[in-house]
Design a protein that fits this description.
Shape: elongated
Oligomer: single chain
CATH class of the largest domain: Alpha Beta
Bound molecules: zinc ion
Number of helices: 14
Helix content: 40-55%
Number of domains: 3
Largest sheet: 4 strands, parallel
Number of strands: 12
Strand content: 5-15%
Order of helices and strands: EHEHEHHEHHHHEEHEEEEHHHHHEE
Strand order of the largest sheet: 2-1-3-4
Length: 463
Amino acid sequence: MVRVGGYRRISDDDTGTGDGVRTQGEDVDDLAAGHGWDVVPYEDNDLSAFKRNVRRPDFERMLKDLKAGVIDGITALDLDRLIRQPRDLERIIDIYETSKRKLVFDTCTASYDLTTPEGRFMARLFVNIANKSSADTSRRIKRHQLDKAKRGEEGGGPAPFGWSPDDKSKLWPQESTPLRKAIDDFLSNKRIATIAREWEAAGIVSRTTGKPFSQTNFSRLLTRPRNCGLRVHQGEIMRDEEGSYVRGVWEPICTVEEWEAICAVFENRRQPGKDTATKYLLSGITRCGSCGEKMRGQKRKDGKHTYVCVANKPGACGKVSVVGEQTDDLIRQLVWRDADNSVKASAMPPTQWPDQAQLDAVESDIANLRTQWKAKEVSSSTFVFMIGELESQQTQLRHARALFTAEAATAANGTVNLRDAWKGMEIEQQRRVVRHTLSAVLIHPARKGLRFDPLRVEPLIKK
Ligand SMILES: [Zn+2]
């Protein structure tokens, strides 16, 4: 009795319920019965043979059995179900050519006799054509996915944490509510470790691992662009032709501003002190009492810092400096006292970022410039130069807005004692708080003989 392997495979484009495998199976059984062969079933469900890295366990098992003499041949619905990669066919042909036994081969749709050179030639030709059409399909699918991303539609895969397993466009309160609260807490300077512990205590776990979130995974969760409705494709946040974000079709958990604020905080943590302008509490806030220019923080050899008037622009005298530490301390005390008073008076700081109109203007300039360039109204070199300028302004403004939002969230939770919160705050947030209270700190020229004279420091309090 001849025993053949009856191979069935259902691919991605079938229904995925297994029905396809069963139908193929019946056809293969009929074919084998016609030859008088016994069928040993092999089936790989829901896999695409075209993806090189996808292994088909039953296909591999069948080849092994064929080599070992467990079966005497192979049948399948068609060659396409059996093989998509030319090298799969070569492996099968190799077994047929080297076997000392008499092997059989057949498919329901076309007959290829792999035991003869003509049959092998026809099979190779067919597989090459099928392989090409599969590559075309793959390209078409990629194109289709990009189009979907451009429209802000969902990609494949299960619902991400926070959204309903039944409908990815809808928030799932049992996950989205704690996540929303975590975003508020984080923007109010609560530490990641603390929030992660609270989640663990509340039994909130990752849907994929079933385990509590590690700090790293928690950080990833907070910085997902999806949270504020931005669509990511192949690792890139999608933008439209005007350079604006493409909005996803799902309900967002937070605003773009909040998401940017979260990312800004993480960015600053990763690169502490990268920007010298924001390294010290009062850089750019202190002003020279002699010439009125902004003073810059500078690191001294002993590791401490000084605020200096740098004569690097017209009008700057370059003659005044003051020790940083004591000045910072003085201003800190002042700001804390002011915060105590304002909490008592329950005065709320503005929640609307004041420079939004400026950012809107820059973004509309960018859009106009692109339009003009496309219409060939400006040269490419002008375009490249101007777009660089505008985008750098846009980045700075967005960054400023992000920090403002973070600070506004801090201030909104006004019950937090500023003294207690101060240590856990990022330097940018501390500077925001200072700027909220003071318009500048005037540093008057030094009088001889005094190392630090608090009388030289004149805070200009905002009205
Ligand atoms: Zn000066």
